[in-house]
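Narrative summary of target 7.
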Amino acid sequence: MSGSATVSFVLNDDPRQTISALQIRHLTEHGHSRIALALPEEDSALARARRRFAEHTLDSLGLPPPVPFTVPRPRRAGTGAVAALRAAHPDVTAVAAFDDDLALRTLTALHDLGLTVPGDLAVIGYDDTEYGELSTPALTTVHIDAEARGRLAARTALGLDAAGLVPVPARIIVRDSV
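Modeled conformation, tokenized:
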């Protein structure tokens, strides 16, 4: 597939759930039932929440929980982590990454291992950074309008009228990695 297409969904007002659910549902709609979750090395409340939401989404679909792993820096360490994932979990066919940075590290590791994307492993990111579009293959990712969501959150937190502000739905930017 060349170029980009978008698929929009609104699943929940909580963007963490929206992101995880969008990624998982997009992967399962493309035939993936065993999914790994690329998480940052640093443990955080956001990373734990994203993992819980991914687990919940997979459970609601009757699928096994995600296989969590990290893709550390530098490049050689990231390649080793992806090789270890593939060796320990050969049934994993897709990776839902915490962000585009981790997704791009995963794409690089797969390239270094001589594997194809999405043939050997599909990868989806989150952030819709420019680098995802420039990678080969181009990265499928989740896009949210952070500015619109920020305005809505700020107005709500300040008790201001937010009636005219409607959150823009998160959407999948479909490229070549899934």
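The beta strands are 5-8, 35-39, 67-70, 94-97, 122-126, 140-143, 171-174.
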